[in-house]
Amino acid sequence: MIESMPDSERIAIFDLDGTLIDAVPDIVPAINQVMDIYHLAPVTHAEAASLMGDGLHQFALRAFQRRGAMASEDDIAMFADHYGRHPVTHTRLYPGVPNTLQALVDTGWRLIVCSNKSEAIADHILRELGVRSYFAVVCGGDTVVARKPDPRHLSEALSRAGASADQAVMIGDYQADVWAARMLGVPSIFAAWGYGHRDMGSQATRIAKQFSDLPALLDEVLPGAMAPY
């Protein structure tokens, strides 16, 4: 049984790809293995970054559409399999992540991850990069009834942590993160260093330019957010 958190404890919900990690260097070779079967031009890193944000399934569909083709479910499964075998060969944390996570934990924040990525893969990546221990919960998109931008994904992540929405702030780089937070009534911080266009953060409570900005911004928005959300 999960024990409820104290009312005074605050929780920071992190997206994964584009927020904590740059996963594109491992996603590109995986999708290009499938592209090569059809003699389609390889996806570049810049293209891949622009297609990120809604999980591997949508990424594959968008990548094929960019080449004027349609990905079948078998193609998407093949891509996911290739990626799942090597999800953290070249993937790296964004600058400042370990030190900032430590600073947040030291000042009483409880941290969780809410990602549309497979939960097992997300957990594996965080372990390989040496930061899994900072997170009380990792809630992947394949273990919930609905994924972001559906707010039920955030609700489930909070439930697993024994927390409620009024204790939380969402941090993410894509509109799905901001929308899910708004629908749940949770303030959000847009990660401007990630994959999403800056205008995706127009409805966020705050915009962070770099990861190390987060401690100060989190303290601003919870408690007593100064901007509507």
From TrEMBL:
Catalytic activity, EC: 3.1.3.18
Pfam families: HAD_2
Keyword Cytoplasm: no
SUPFAM superfamilies listed in its UniProt record: HAD-like
GO-annotated cellular components: cytosol
One GO MF term attached to the UniProt entry: phosphoglycolate phosphatase activity
InterPro entries for the chain: HAD-like_hydrolase_sf, HAD-like_sf, HAD-SF_hydro_IA, HAD-SF_hydro_IIIA, HAD_2, HAD_sf, PGP-like_dom2
Keywords: Hydrolase
GO biological process: DNA repair
Catalytic activity: 2-phosphoglycolate + H2O = glycolate + phosphate
Family: Belongs to the HAD-like hydrolase superfamily. CbbY/CbbZ/Gph/YieH family.
Name under which the protein is recorded: phosphoglycolate phosphatase
Natural source organism: Dyella psychrodurans
